[in-house]
Amino acid sequence: MTDDGNARLHRLDILVGTWDTTITLLAADGSPGAVSTAVDRYNWMANGHFLLHDVDAIIEGQHILSMEVIALADTGTGYATRSYDADGSINDFSAERDGNDWRITGRDQRFAGAFSADGKTLAGRWEQRHGTEWRPLMTVTLVKRS
Questions:
Q1: Residues in contact with 92: Cβ distance below 8 Å, sequence separation at least 6, in sequence order
Q2: Signed CA dihedral, 92, 64, 122, 26: sign only
Q3: Structural domain span for residue 76
Q4: CA distance 73 to 3
Q5: Which CATH number is 85's domain given?
Q6: Which residue, 9, 8, 39, is CA-closest to 23?
Q7: Which residues pair with 1 in a beta bridge?
C-alpha cells in the first residue's frame, strides 16, 4: 500500500471505538419523530486495511443489527463501504472525510455530518431517495464512549 493510502486509512482512526448513538426519525417534512438508541463499534481488522463497523440498534421497538466494512475506494481520495443488514440486504456507499465533515452517499440513502473539534461527537442527518427527490430520514448523534 502507498503512503498516501496509509494516510487516508488513518484518517478513519477518529471513528475507532464504541459510540452511544441517539437516532431521531424524521417525517417527510423534516419534523422530528420517535427517538431511538444504538451502539456503534468501529474496529480495525488485524491487517489494518479494513475498518469494521457494527451497529446494534433499537428503532421503534425493533432490534436491528448491521455490519459495515469500510475500505479505500479504488479511485479518488475517498472510501468504499458495504453494509450487511439483518434483513439480508446489502448496500454499497461511497464516503469522504474532509476536515471534520463526514459524508456517505449511496444509491438510495445519503448522510452528511461533522465531527466535533475534539472528535468525540459525530452528528448529522440521513436522507432517503423517493423517486428523484431526497427526503429526511433521521438525525443521528454519536458520542464516543471509548
A1: 80, 81, 82, 106, 107
A2: positive
A3: 3-144
A4: 15
A5: 2.40.128.20
A6: 39
A7: none
Judge contact between 95 and 83, C-beta under 8 A: no
Tens-digit pLDDT profile for residues 23-73? 999 999 999 999 999 999 999 997 889 999 999 999 999 999 999 999 999
Task: State which amino acid sits at residue 89.
Answer: S
To the nearest 10°, report the CA torsion of 108, 136, 51, 142.
-170
Question: Structure pTM?
Answer: 0.93
Give every CB contact of residue 48 below 8 A, 6+ residues apart in sequence: 9
What's the rounded Cα separation, in Å, for the pair 125 and 136?
8
Number of structural domains found in the chain? 1
